[in-house]
Specification:
By secondary structure, this protein is of the alpha/beta class. It folds into two domains: 9-182 and 222-244, Rossmann fold; 183-218 and 248-281 and 299-316, Alpha-Beta Complex (UDP-galactose 4-epimerase, domain 1), CATH 3.90.25. Helices cover 37% and strands 17% of the residues. It is built from nine helices and 13 strands. The strands form four sheets. A seven-stranded parallel β-sheet has the order 3-2-1-4-5-6-11, sandwiched between helices. A two-stranded parallel ribbon has the order 7-10. The N and C termini lie far apart (44 Å). The structure holds nicotinamide-adenine-dinucleotide. Nicotinamide-adenine-dinucleotide is lined by residues 13-14, 16-20, 38-43, 63-65, 80-84, 99, 103, 121, 123, 179, 181-182. Nicotinamide-adenine-dinucleotide binds next to helix 1, helix 3 and strand 5.
């Protein structure tokens, strides 16, 4: 690790993505020298356009499933590279498995060589369609390995296993965050996730598409709260997985109604069949995050949604959506 008088040198894989770009912003604000590494398979350079002229920031166009060459010191690796929305990983099944397996292996190899601390962005999807509710870190999950979503869930489960193996066998300093649904500006309008879909449909007056009867639940965390949790975990001494997410649980239907209210839209709500293996419930137990990191979400849902709606409204005004 670097001494406190020097700026830490930090690599963010997936740094041009939704979460990775917000993380880069925050790390730079904390005085890190940041490299964002991304192959742009689902990311967007627009997300980091405002950082490109900074001398303490660099973008490296690279696929982390191939060897990661790094000269010089390295203190922290935030390993966020992976397709993350169902539409993406269903379209990119092999790339998703490769980045979870080979990408994580390469990132861990780099951490070992450089003596850097690595944080893996894992997911609540490791719990699959959970039989324990809310989900606690000690729950091993209910995942269908051969279903269409298995490519993402199992890639992340393998990545967690690999991180723990490097930690136990090679003594690499590691952290694992299990991220629950997160939302905010810079989500892709058509990434298939509920928040961009409902916001864009409502803003354009299009029908809002609810899968199934909408009774399935989700819990949404605003991106700035998540980033705070990520940093606290990285700087903690905790190597076992920690859930970070907002425990406020809403049915998908209630969520659609909330976005209808906040946008004042006249959109109708229409129903479509539930996707295969869609989790019926999703809510984090964040007792460990509270106890170990003194973390809990601070952004009220309505405020976070207003900021996100504003973001999509701007994209629609620009004709991007
Ligand atoms: P995103 O698609 O916006 O970002 C992922 C980034 O990784 C993209 O920029 C993409 O181009 C990049 N990438 C993918 N494969 C790569 C490769 N082989 N080499 C280099 N770069 C590669 O998704 P996101 O929502 O920002 O998710 C970031 C991470 O957080 C992912 O690992 C995801 O699994 C995890 N996560 C996100 C959420 C969420 O709610 N957003 C929830 C749980 C976990």
């Amino acid at each position: 690790m670097t001494t406190s008088t020097q700026s830490p040198v930090t690599l963010v894989t997936g740094g041009a993505g939704f979460l990775g770009s917000h993380l880069c912003d925050r790390l730079l604000a904390e005085g890190h020298r940041v490299a964002a590494m991304d192959n742009l398979i689902t990311g967007n350079l627009e997300n980091i356009a405002h950082l490109r002229s900074r001398t303490d920031f660099q973008f490296i166009h690279h696929d982390v499933t191939t060897f990661i060459d790094w000269s010089g010191e390295l203190d922290y690796i935030f390993h966020f590279a992976s397709p993350a929305s169902p539409i993406d990983y269903l379209e990119l099944p092999i790339q998703t498995l490769k980045v979870g397996a080979l990408g994580t292996h390469n990132a861990l190899g780099l951490a070992k060589t450089k003596g850097a601390r690595l944080l893996l962005a894992s997911t609540s999807e490791v719990y699959g369609d959970p039989l324990v509710h809310p989900q606690v870190e000690s729950y091993w999950g209910n995942v269908n390995p051969i279903g269409p979503r298995g490519v993402y869930d199992e890639a992340k489960r393998f990545a967690e296993a690999l991180v723990m193996a490097y930690h136990r066998y090679h003594g690499v300093d590691t952290r694992i965050i299990r991220i629950f649904n997160t939302y905010g500006p810079r989500m892709r309008p058509k990434d298939g996730r509920i928040v961009p879909a409902f916001c864009c449909q409502a803003l354009k007056g299009d029908p809002m598409t609810v899968f199934g009867d909408g009774s399935q639940t989700r819990s949404f965390c605003y991106v700035s709260d998540l980033v705070e949790g990520i940093l606290r975990l990285m700087m903690s001494e905790e190597s076992d997985p920690v859930n970070i997410g907002n425990p406020r649980e809403l049915s998908v239907m209630d969520f659609a109604i909330k976005i209808k209210e906040l946008t004042g839209t006249t959109s109708t709500i229409v129903h479509q069949p539930l996707p295969v293996d869609d989790p019926k419930v999703r809510q984090p137990n964040i007792d460990r995050a509270r106890a170990l990191l003194d973390w809990e979400p601070a952004m009220p849902l309505e405020d976070g949604l207003k900021r996100t709606i504003d973001y999509f409204a701007t994209l629609i005004q620009k004709g991007v959506v």
